Amino acid sequence: MFNNMKQFMPYLLPAVSLLIIAGFLIVDPNITGFAVRDQSYDANIKISTYEFVVMPENSIVEVLLVDSLSKMTFKEFIDKTGDEYELREGKFEDIGFEGVGYSGNHEYFLPISEFGFDSLEEGQTITIRVRYENYLISESVIPVSNK
Question: What's the pTM?
Answer without folding.
Answer: 0.68
